[in-house]
Design a protein that fits this description.
Layout: H1 9-22, H2 34-45, E1 52-56, H3 64-68, E2 73-78, H4 81-90, E3 95-98, E4 113-119, H5 127-141, E5 142-155, H6 158-168, E6 178-179, H7 180-189, E7 193-200, E8 203-209
Parallel strand pairs: 1-2, 1-4, 2-3, 4-5, 5-6
Antiparallel strand pairs: 5-8, 7-8
Helix pairs in contact: 1-4
This protein binds S-adenosylmethionine.
The site of S-adenosylmethionine (SAM) has 20 residues, from helix 1.
Length: 214
């Protein structure tokens, strides 16, 4: 990782204590529509009891807990141990793996999953890294008929993002937010079977299905 990594686990360790309070600010950037986003992931996933579900960047477990409620088997991963401690309190039955998604894939996750889900994590990665990770997940870790569902801060295109940034003033922070037009092109060019849905002014969901990619 680069020195002075702006996206280090330390930043998230210190956020863990207030995180669940912060996401309740659902009319304020970046969590506009947070509950709706998580509920839509659950709906799109169509989870069944016994499904093996991998949640990437679990944080305090607010997405994973919805799948636990559907009797899925959960693997939760995050690079912040402090965030995962919070999740562990809510999900005593889940498997927890501390790992950085930018590093080597952890051996504990070398298997396939019926659903791979993630919320509010991939905007820390540049577009190429996002696409490469999605491709790896679909080709190496998704079961036949599996679904990869990535929800995140995402805008239809750069001009919509600029307008939105102005409207939120000082709350805005520049990160690698998804732009659906260029992201969909990049994902499709990488051979992915993908659809996109805008959920709130600043959040969207990318749904990818297992395909014949290899
Ligand atoms: C904004 S929180 C989202 C948490 C949860 N998914 C949710 O929707 O509430 C982002 C989470 O991603 C984790 N994260 C960020 N970059 C990561 C990386 N490179 N590898 C693993 N986890 C990462 C952070 O530690 C944090 O828990």
């Amino acid at each position: 990782m680069p020195q002075n990594d702006p996206f280090s686990s330390n930043n998230f360790d210190s956020w863990a204590k207030s995180y669940d309070r912060d996401v309740q600010e659902q009319t304020r950037f970046p969590f506009n529509g947070y509950e709706r986003v998580l509920e839509t992931i659950l709906k799109l996933a169509e989870p069944q009891a016994g499904h093996a579900v991998l949640d990437l960047g679990t944080g305090t477990g607010n997405l994973a807990i919805r799948f636990a409620g559907k009797d899925c088997k959960l693997w939760c991963t995050d690079f912040s141990e402090v965030m995962l401690e919070k999740a562990r309190e809510k999900l005593p039955q889940a498997h927890f793996i501390v790992a950085d998604l930018r590093a080597e894939w952890p051996p504990e996750l070398s298997r396939s999953f019926d659903r791979i889900i993630s919320a509010y994590v991939f905007h820390h990665f540049e577009l190429d890294a996002k696409v490469n990770l999605c491709r790896e997940l679909v080709t190496k870790h998704l079961a036949p008929n599996g679904k990869l569902i990535i929800a995140d801060i995402s805008f239809p295109d750069s001009s919509t993002m600029s307008g939105f940034a102005k409207s939120v003033g000082d709350l805005w922070e520049d990160e690698f937010y998804w732009l659906a037009d260029e992201s969909m092109d990049a994902l499709k060019n990488a051979g992915m079977n993908v659809t996109y849905r805008q959920i709130s002014p600043c959040a969207g969901i990318y749904l990818m299905k297992a395909s014949n990619l290899s």
